[in-house]
């Protein structure tokens, strides 16, 4: 039997050796790197998830706020019944068209401002005016019959039986105007916030009362109280 040379034995022993072992330090370092990557991914996910939730919550809050505002607006009474010394006048309030004026009117009603309010000026085929002041206010430039006839011939901006108040903010109190005919030029000073839907005959009866030369009723006539209603 031939003897194997030492050199050949060395080569054979090298071939029989198993795979090189990985040191414990290397394994630990690899695990740490993997853990850091996982933690980084989790943190990134949580950040974007939280941001998305906050934006959704803010959007929902804004939507809810808008809904509450609209709900509050539509919960307000939409009608008012004026109990006058000649009968009842029912008016529809323009909550959408004149929200600020309607709010002021409703607030005045709740405070009892209109109880006992007189119609202190009545101009036939024109307007009746109620308030606690004695000035003509928005009708001061149209008090002669000549001016009334000439203005009624023009194209109207306000129809008859419209409910309005003065546009000027320096006026004292809350003046009420109910037109009894189309009033074009009154648009410059009058803010319409409602219309008469029942009781037009009562308005016309008030319009027919006797007045002096300054359009003041000779006998007292006015509003006894006002009742607010959500529906008729």
From TrEMBL:
InterPro entries: Cyclophilin-like_dom_sf, Cyclophilin-type_PPIase_dom. It holds the Pfam family Pro_isomerase. It is an enzyme of class 5 (isomerase). CDD domains: cyclophilin (cd00317). Keywords: Isomerase, Membrane, Rotamase, Transmembrane, Transmembrane helix. Residues 76-228 form the PPIase cyclophilin-type domain. PPIases accelerate the folding of proteins. It catalyzes the cis-trans isomerization of proline imidic peptide bonds in oligopeptides. This is Peptidyl-prolyl cis-trans isomerase. The lineage of its organism: Eukaryota, Viridiplantae, Streptophyta, Embryophyta, Tracheophyta.
């Amino acid at each position: 039997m031939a003897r194997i040379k030492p050199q050949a034995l060395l080569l054979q022993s090298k071939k029989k050796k198993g795979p090189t072992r990985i040191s414990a330090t290397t394994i630990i370092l690899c695990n740490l790197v993997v853990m850091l990557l996982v933690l980084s991914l989790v943190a990134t996910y949580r950040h974007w998830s939280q941001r998305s939730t906050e934006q959704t919550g803010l959007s929902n809050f804004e939507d809810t706020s808008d809904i509450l505002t609209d709900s509050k607006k539509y919960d307000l009474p939409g009608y008012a019944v004026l109990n006058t010394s000649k009968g009842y006048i029912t008016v529809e309030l323009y909550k959408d068209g004149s929200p600020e004026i309607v709010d002021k009117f409703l607030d005045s009603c709740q405070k009892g401002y209109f109880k006992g309010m007189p119609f202190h000026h009545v101009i036939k085929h024109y307007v009746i005016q109620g308030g606690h002041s004695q000035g003509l206010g928005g009708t001061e430039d149209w008090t002669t019959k000549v001016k009334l006839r000439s203005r009624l011939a023009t194209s109207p901006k306000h129809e008859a039986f419209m409910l309005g108040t003065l546009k000027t903010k320096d006026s004292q109190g809350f003046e009420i105007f109910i037109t009894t005919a189309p009033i074009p030029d009154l648009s410059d000073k009058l803010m319409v916030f409602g219309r008469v839907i029942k009781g037009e005959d009562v308005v016309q009866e008030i319009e027919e009362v006797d007045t002096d030369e300054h359009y003041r009723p000779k006998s007292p006539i006015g509003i006894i109280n006002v009742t607010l209603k959500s529906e008729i």
